[in-house]
Amino acid sequence: MAEIIVADEAGACYGVERALDLVLRTAEQADGPVFTLGPLIHNPQVVAELEARGVAVTEDAAVPAGSTLVLRTHGVTPEVEQAAHDAGAKVLDATCPFVKRVHRVAERLERDGYQVIVVGEKGHPEVEGTMGHLKAATIVENAEQVADLELAKKVGVVVQTTLAKDVLAGVVAQLACRVDELRVHNTICEATAGHQGACARLAKTVDVMVVVGGKNSANTTHLADIARQHCAGTHHIETPDELQGSWFEGARRIGITAGASTPASQIEVVRQAIAGLAG
Asked: What is the pLDDT of residues 171-189, one digit of tens each?
């Protein structure tokens, strides 16, 4: 019988749980239609469950008057939020508090005269939201891109809350030798950092590692990358249907971790499925 171990820190973070609670309460109490501006979180199964409860996803902030529009956990630009108010919707802000902190820190750096660099993934909604709070900023995805930048004497750095910490470290190392003053705010959230550390520790000790969470989730994808560095038998899945019995043949220890958008109930379903396959 294989031993199945769930990482010490795994699954839905405070920001996700807060947002889900807000949306579910809103769906029960609202008189009119309820929308989320983009997927509330990067978890297709949860988004589908919300739709089944009457919470639709929209990419247009100008929803019908009388509707309720919930701003996603990743945050939005001020212009998008204003468009929702102008349309006559009731706007509820489910932006993660840690993302809000990135906005505040970045705005302060810009006010203080720093060239602001946002370390994160181009096109990611959180990064786009942060950029919308600044007059001018540069997105850097990795250390290699620093070489192509024209840098001011004073540079300030913020980082996507779900980014892998080694990416930030690489970018900072390249910037440090090129500017007179470098102010770095490590805005990777505590849950993300904790998940990454717990994932690495567990992956070193198991034969197979299963990472549960949306394929479109940045933090879950980073967990899978970290796990692969320590365990060749790493698999990233969204649902138990993707599990294959062959993965667990001969395995004595099986590890499970999950991204910050993965509720505990989804982790437990996967754990039970693995127990059935590996038993």
From this structure: 999 999 999 999 999 999 9
